[in-house]
Request: fold
Amino acid sequence: MKQKFQQYIWRCALVVLVALAVCGWSVQSAQALLRQHHISPGVLRYHSQVSIKDEKGYAWQVLLFKQNYNSAVKDLRLRLVAFPGVVELAHPEPLLIETAAGKLLSASDAYALTAPVPNVGEYNLTNILPKLPTTDALKLYVPLSSGQQLVLNISNTVVTEWQWLVTEID
Reply:
């Protein structure tokens, strides 16, 4: 009887371990996706795009792209798009970026004077991205019109892709 009970416990433990392994230990991964688009006939450009959920479970579109293709210095922009009516971003407040080591960086608001809609923010990362580690996750502190900050966790794979977009693709 005792032996059957032990076998039952071991089988239950094995089922739980297999379920956790299959579910990925319930960690939500965010895989960015490099996409290409035509900005004019015959001219392709690339951007990184990922959907990330905030702490309340709302999805955000996070896009990194190059701006000003015709100039020598190409601005890097990070656009954050929330579902309309859920949150309003505070303009002209900067986006705060925290590295895994605790370093805080501030990205200026590209929509400081004229935001197209309240649920969209765009920030200049031209001088920020070279200062970021290539293999560590980040936290983005998004300023809201309510005076609070919303946190978006950016995985290390997304950060690595951002670096790759900047250094490898024109």
